[in-house]
Amino acid sequence: MSIIWILISFTYLSYLHGACIIFILSIASVNFLLVKIFARTKYFSFVFWIFNIFFLLCNRVYEGYSFSMIGQRWAYLDNFRGTFRWHICFNFVVLRMISFGYDYHWAHRDSRFDHKKHIQRCDICKSGKTCYQSLQERGVQNDKFSFMTYLSYLVYAPLYLAGPILDVPQNNLSARDIAWYGLRWVFSLLLMELMTHLFYYNAFAISGMWKELHPMDVFIIGYGVLIFMWLKFFLIWRYFRFWSLICGIEVPENMPRCINNCYNLETFWKNWHASYNKWLVRYLYIPLGGTRRKLLNVWVVFTFVAIWHDLEWKLLSWAWLTCLFFIPEMILKSALNAFQVESTHGEFVVRELSAVAGAITITCLMVANLVGFVIGPSGISWLISQFLNREGLPVLAGMLLTFYVGTKLMFHIRDAKQSSS
């Protein structure tokens, strides 16, 4: 079966990238050799990360390279580069190369994962089968590390371009479930078309017209851009997941919760690009020390996320702003947990403080995304000046009040789900 999928996938890649498939195969093959050579040594992590980050950066710096760099006799191949820039979607391949390497490394050394104790159930899974929460921390069998399996994993066609980062597959959904999933995707696409034609958030953001607007308008545009981005990625990721489901492979849902039902940063990032979050937890966050070094680890993780997306200062600004906003949230969570334990009458106070924290978090999330994807780091001072003047302060207060009420509504929705389950 893997041979068939490799042929299908490479036919697909040949259409997308033409002769540039040579670059993909070359980098992937060298990565495989490095894994086999260094996996049992103490230098593995150092060599492995250097190699993958080096090509992650070089692919962008040299714009996917050109065959003329190898020699003029190969320059004619630059006329057959396909229909899609290979180095853009190669970022997903890099993640899979790293996950394959570390799974092989852990399978042949003392693993930090106990392969048996993590068989558990969670409220996400209703089928009674092993859930992704447990699969995230399980090891991989030794017979899953052949070169053919490796290639099948890297270039699996339905998930190659922008699909979820492939985890251990399951097969829980019926044909009716898959058909309904596809129909919901069509409804979401129609919603996107409606938003594109009736609302002009992105036009204001891209043109720079937001600089001429009232703070209330800037707030509406910022929130609208965030909603639009969520729906855009929702459609992209669910399309490729739907394709994978039709082919009989189930992978983690990348957008399991609506953005308007996330009232803290941790919940938001677990539900924005969920499969990427699982990857980061397993292959970066836990090896760095997990919760024991949480305040330090978030800086490393989000810096990697920014570099993985692209080499831009505004993305690094977005990443570091997110880390700054993460720190008070983590401190507040610890304080609220301590207060809840020590006070028998503190449930109401904790709930109110959580709602206030949720309002502040959503505001910070908007600011971070505006800086990262719209106004850039140079616009931070302008944004602050707009909201900290006589016209902007009432808008800021109204915005926080709106998010406070919205967070309380999210609490009620969460309680209703818990009581019904």
UniProtKB/TrEMBL annotation:
It is found in: Membrane. The keyword Oxidoreductase does not apply. Pfam families: MBOAT. One of its GO terms (cellular component) is endoplasmic reticulum. The keyword Transmembrane applies. InterPro entries: MB_O-acyltransferase, MBOAT_fam. Keywords: Acyltransferase, Membrane, Transferase, Transmembrane, Transmembrane helix. This is Putative membrane-bound O-acyltransferase C24H6.01c. GO terms for biological process: triglyceride biosynthetic process. It is a multi-pass membrane protein.
